[in-house]
User: Which sequence fits this backbone?
């Protein structure tokens, strides 16, 4: 993901809302934002931007320009059950816009096979599916499913990182990158910097790209807890200088 940040990007949220699934969902940023607006995050609704990839401006050009990286469904989960009736049309828009690259993150990789379009095969070239693994429990459950899944572009997301993680030697050329970050918000749980460094070590051993995306609000480093304001969490992670490019 980091090497794609310099690319032109767009946001597409075809539906909004989700129900909490695992430990990483406890302090969900979508729930936090919705609560300030008096909105119920558990209600999954189709948004007004549903057809955005195919929408055009007055001059007939697409609203999302060719070549953009499209961050998809970042206020929900693309594989959430409540969106089953809309997903086929969303896949079709991705298929039509081969000039775009779509990226979404899921905690529901166990639902992937029942949610794929008929022509998926081994995956669409223009779709990256990221899988969240926030603790060892979710690594043990999701990693084998994710590794076996028919996806062309895979990125592991350890965010919010809640425990030490051992990938048990399962990383390899099948995954393009591992992204790590702490938890944001005043109720954030601690992210231990030693956990971050150990994931980095595992990535380097397998020559997999590693990105320390952000520190989170509470970072434990060398026995001291740091509380880091939201607007410094990404810059402080960059200053650590531990990102690793890998060979993919």
Assistant:
């Amino acid at each position: 993901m980091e090497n794609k940040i310099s690319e032109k990007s767009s946001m597409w949220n075809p539906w909004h809302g989700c129900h909490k699934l695992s430990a990483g969902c406890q302090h969900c940023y979508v729930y936090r934002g919705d609560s300030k607006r008096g909105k119920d995050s558990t209600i999954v609704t189709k948004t007004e931007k549903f057809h955005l990839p195919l929408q055009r401006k007055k001059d007939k050009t697409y609203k999302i320009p060719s070549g953009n990286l499209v961050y998809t469904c970042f206020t929900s989960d693309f594989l959430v059950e409540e969106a089953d009736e809309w997903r086929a049309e969303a896949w079709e828009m991705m298929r039509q816009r081969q000039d775009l690259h779509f990226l979404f993150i899921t905690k529901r990789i166990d639902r992937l096979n029942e949610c794929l379009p008929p022509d998926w095969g081994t995956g669409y070239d223009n779709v990256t599916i990221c899988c969240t693994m926030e603790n060892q429990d979710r690594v043990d459950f999701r990693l084998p499913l994710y590794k076996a899944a028919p996806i062309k572009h895979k990125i592991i997301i350890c965010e919010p990182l809640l425990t030490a993680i051992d990938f048990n030697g399962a990383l390899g050329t099948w995954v393009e990158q591992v992204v790590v970050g702490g938890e944001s918000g005043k109720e954030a749980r601690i992210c231990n910097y030693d956990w971050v460094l150990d994931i980095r070590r595992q990535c380097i051993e397998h020559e997999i790209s590693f990105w320390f995306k952000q520190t989170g609000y509470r970072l434990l480093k060398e026995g001291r807890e740091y509380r880091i304001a939201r607007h410094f969490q990404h810059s402080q992670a960059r200053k650590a200088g531990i990102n690793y490019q890998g060979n993919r």
User: Anything to note?
Assistant: Residues 210 and 244 are 5 Å apart (CA to CA). The chain has a mean pLDDT of 96.
